[in-house]
Amino acid sequence: MLDFSWSNILHSNVINFAIMIAFFAFIIKKLNVSQKIEDMRASVQNKVEESDAIKNEAKQDFENVAKSLANIEDELNAIVKKAEETAKAFEQKSKEDLDKTVESIKKNIEKQVLSEENHAQTSLMKNVSDSSIEVAQRQIVTALDKDKKLHRKYIEDFINSIDKIDV
Fold first, then answer.
1. What does the pLDDT look like over 107-125, one tens digit per residue?
2. Is 84 part of any domain?
3. Residue 19: which domain range?
4. How many angstroms separate the Cα of 38 from the Cα of each of 10, 27, 32, 128, 165?
5. How many angstroms separate the CA atoms of 58 and 96, rounded?
6. What are phi and psi for residue 165, nearest 5 degrees?
7. Does residue 28 have a pLDDT over 90?
8. Rounded CA gap, 161 and 18, in Å?
9. For residue 76, is pLDDT > 70?
10. Is residue 57 part of a domain?
11. Average pLDDT of span 153-157
């Protein structure tokens, strides 16, 4: 029968414990658990170091952004001021160009008006002279038709004036 004495139980448990430790030692040795644990520890350590580097990089980026944001108002004011100056310069240049163009147009209009006046004056003078010649011709023809002696006198005056001309 089975002996359940304290010494048997203790002896049996000690043997079972020793077998179990030997079995675990064999498995640990076979599976190279210590190397895998070391590899995992190294991997975790690398990840921690990488995260520290990323954290420091992010911190540096944050500081750079904070510095640039500190000066952003001044930069914006400088940009706005420069844009206003450029706009004023452009406005002044445009105004000067527009004034020159308007002045040029005025001069061209004055020249055109003067040319038209001269043309109208010339045309009017031609019409007046043509009308004067026509009126004079009618008066002469009428006078000559009324007085035949006057016709003869004009012919003789003309012949005498030809004789006086030096050629």
1. 999 999 999 999 889 988 9
2. no
3. 7-70
4. 36, 17, 10, 125, 142
5. 54
6. -75, 130
7. no
8. 170
9. yes
10. yes
11. 83
The answer to whether position 131 is within a domain reads no
Q: How many domains does the chain have?
A: 1
Asked whether residue 140 is domain-assigned, the answer is no
The type of residue at 167 is V
Q: pLDDT-based confidence at 167, cuts 50/70/90?
A: low
Q: Rounded to the nearest 5 degrees, what angle is found at the Cα of 77, between the Cα atoms of 72 and 83? A: 125
The three-state (H, E, C) secondary structure of the chain, written as one string: CCCCCHHHHHHHHHHHHHHHHHHHHHHHHHHCHHHHHHHHHHHHHHHHHHHHHHHHHHHHHHHHHHHHHHCHHHHHHHHHHHHHHHHHHHHHHHHHHHHHHHHHHHHHHHHHHHHHHHHHHHHHHHHHHHHHHHHHHHHHHHHHHHCHHHHHHHHHHHHHHHHHCCC
Q: What is the mean pLDDT of the chain?
A: 85
Could you tell me what percent of the chain has a pLDDT over 90?
A: 31
